[in-house]
Amino acid sequence: MIRDGRDVTKDVGAGEMAIQDARWRAESARLRRMRARDLDARRPLGLVRKSDLRICMISEHASPLACIGGVDSGGQNIYVDQVARNLVRQGHRVDVYTRRDRSDLPAVVEVTPGLRVIHVSAGPEAFVAKEALLAHMPAFAKSCEHWLRTGPRYDVIHANFFMSGWVGLRLKQVFGLPLVTTFHALGLVRREHQGSADGFPAARVGIEKVLVERSDRVIAECPQDWSDLVRLYGADPARLAMVPCGFDASEFTPGSRQAARRRLGIPADEFMVLQVGRMVPRKGVETVVRAMACPPCEGMRLRIVGGEGEVADRQLTPEIGRLMDVAASCGVADRVVFEGRKPRSELRHWYAAADVFVTTPWYEPFGITPLEAMACARPVVGSAVGGVQFSVEDGVTGLLVPPKDPSALADALAALRADPTGARVMGEAGLARARERFTWDGVARGLAAAFDDARLAHAAQSGTSPSPAPALHVSGLDEPSSAAARPGRPAIFLDKDGTLVEDVPYNVDPALLRFTPGAIDGLRLWQAAGYRLVVVTNQPGLGHGLFDRDALARLHAGLSERLAREGVFLDGFYACPHVETAGCDCRKPRPGLLLEAARALGIDLDNSWMVGDILNDVEAGHRAGCRSVLLDVGNETEWVAGPLRVPDRRCPNLLAAAHATLEAGGTAPLAPASASANTAASAAVSSEALA
Ligand SMILES: [Mg+2]
Asked: What pLDDT, on a 0 to 100 scale, did the predictor assign at position 15?
């Protein structure tokens, strides 16, 4: 877009972005059509779309009740509150599960008919920073399980943020429910932009990867979020749904500039640039302050709303102090006004008073303030990152500039000052765009469609089997999978008896299952590092007629449920049914079970490990092309030697085996470049946090 003889959008490739946007629209339309066809083809008889879903919404740290009465609330509180209310208005029923952070909170609050908030006991009944909450998630999940066992049967679980997602995975596995995840922010994106981990346990990224893999639908909030999920987390585009954030149309509407300025005591003749938001460096407020010092911005005044106190205070909000120093050093201290924090009810007057709203973050998962400004019919100058480049249509509802570029920002602001009519037209176009695409009502409709897609896909996938566990595969009895899975994930193949559970000969009673020492912690480590977990077991009891396939299926379901309660999710369970003398290819030490699983699940055998308690397991692993661990627990008694029977590692238990394999070259298959260095640390924290 040309302004004052300069193409202010050239730097960010506006044309290229438009093409990307168009491609993305075409691709998502194609996927929607494909998904609908696919669902129709595979939908079991009698399964139809529902307009009255019963939704289990999990928001571990952000209660929607915090939005009532102006108590401090962040973006996720607003999102959960608005989405839940609008879903209920559209005929659905919603229970929001959130952590009890005060002892005087009732167990259940009925907000409106159809909308309940359920306070879940997990950890201290007091404020706990969300960075420290992961350790309380097992208790949170346990408490939810109690509610789900005694309460209504839900159609779908909607998890918000990765910790709720962890809880959601467990509930999905135990109750066989479809899971939809909205991340709100992604650990690897933050790491990419800020070069350092956030304050969350390093296990965050591992949990996010498992969620991307296992959720029935993942909500992308903007095209950038979509591409981050695919690029950094290996998300399958067919399971992504694009649903943006929204704004409250009753809260933000256009108002008179003059009236707002009189109310706020702002001179009628100043050219006012408004910045609203949290005071953290990544929001790029420094870029705006520095732009004020550029010649094109001479005479403009920047008003900054935000901070910890009602009055801007450098002690209370150190970032404000830092920005004050920047303003002073640039010689614009008199034109940069820190207004402090304002109640939400007053914000619309600030937007109305502004000539232009500015937001120049380094990166932004979504960003709700540009929508609010647009809803108040003000033009927005934003950085061409994340959700901002999606909400702001460059040259139509405002201008996009590169992040961290005060000079480009100054030119864009000057362009709007020089063309008040054009600026007004942009404000009106912004209002139209906000109302058309970003109302909470529309957001809730988009989510409801994604929930229903997830429900239908989940039902089609499980077919007539009510078991939520991954399919039991008995070699030779069950049809081999015809679908070739996407290759690339390594696995840990686990022998069952004597390795994963104590050896009880020919046992098919789930009640007799006892995990071996360190088993759960070891599995959690592998799972957090991105490995698939696949049981491969010789079950000659089937061939001898000591039990049948159904009995083995019950044992498998019981085992999967027990593991799910610990936050561990099996990817497959492969059994050889033949007797010892059958000469089949699937009975270990032959590699048939591993090879079948690898074909069906897309396993990268070169980077996989076989873990077992006898040398037949070791040999089967080597024959399949994997490395091997022998659990040295006294179960191997014959010690028949052979070149394929020398284990790569010998360990006393599964936890030690997990450490040994990760040290030997743990891979983080979904995002090798950025995550591998953190894999071991992430897994270790995961184990501690969730133990
Ligand atoms: Mg064994």
From this structure: 54
Enumerate the domain spans of the chain: 45-246+442-460, 250-436, 469-690
Cα→Cα distances 55→148, 358, 446, Å = 12, 37, 14
* Domain 469-690 part of CATH 3.40.50.1000: yes
Residue 615 CA, ligand 1 centroid: distance in Å: 9
Domain covering 250-436 assigned CATH 3.40.50.2000 in the classification: yes
Residue 173 alpha carbon to ligand 1 centre in Å: 26
Distance 207 CA to ligand 1 centre (A): 29
What pLDDT shows up at residue 480?
A: 64
CB burial string 655-689: b at 16+ within 10 A, e below:
bbbbbbbbeeebbbbbbeeebbebbbebbbbbbeb
Q: Alpha carbon of 547 to those of 469, 505, 536, 583: distances in Å?
A: 20, 12, 18, 21
- Interval between CA 555 and ligand 1 midpoint (Å): 16
Which among 544, 558, 561, 547 is positioned nearest to 507, based on CA atoms? Answer: 547
Distance CA 249, CA 251 (A): 5
* Cβ atoms of residues 475 and 577 within 8 Å: yes
Query: From residue 600, how far is each of 246, 334, 423, 456, 551 by CA, in Å?
Result: 41, 67, 57, 23, 23
Q: How far apart are CA 513 and CA 298, in angstroms?
A: 75
The superfamily (CATH) of domain 45-246+442-460 is Glycogen Phosphorylase B; (3.40.50.2000)
Ranges of residues in the chain whose predicted pLDDT is under 50: 1-13, 39-46, 68-72, 464-469, 666-691
616 C-alpha to ligand 1 centroid (Å) = 9
Token digits of residue 325: 């120093």
Q: List pLDDT tens digits, range 28-42.
A: 566 556 555 554 444
Output the CA 601–ligand 1 centroid distance in Å. Answer: 23
C-alpha 499 – ligand 1 centre gap (Å):
6
